[in-house]
Amino acid sequence: xxxxxxxxxxxxxxxxxxxxxxxxxxxxxxxxxxxxxxxxxxxxxxxxxxxxxxxxxxxxxxxxxxxxxxxxxxxxxxxxxxxxxxxxxxxxxxxxxxxxxxxxxxxxxxxxxxxxxxxxxxxxxxxxxxxxxxxxxxxxxxxxxxxxxxxxxxxxxxxxxxxxxxxxxxxxxxxxxxxxxxxxxxxxxxxx
Length: 192
Known about the structure:
62% strand, 11 strands, 192 residues
């Protein structure tokens, strides 16, 4: 995986190359486990990356989501960067760890009714639609036990044109603890 990090003036701040091993298990729920090595910054920083994601269905059409992402500096220095793929939603453009680690936790619950498959004149087809609540937690300071928090609601669906390939799309809105304001965003191409 390759990812760029942009600053507030949309200039390239740092880059990330990610290589590792991931295992997925899918049944009624889903478990994803990953371990990787990362090269970041101006290719001068190395990190150990770990990730565990779980989804457990309960009741009729409800699902629990839980996740953990960790990035640990191999040189022991601080300034561990947060990337958008780490799963912490924030409007603050610079969330850099002062500790030699960065840990993100995610909790959520959503309702995904199987019967809800609306269309827009058979041109746009919406599948796997859900609405839910999320909580993102960021530990990035060595002297603080309490995390930074973002909470909100999320609407997700898969949109397809005439039933062809679908595009996962999510819209979320909530409270952003690090910037102490409103958080919102639209994500195309991956499920949150």
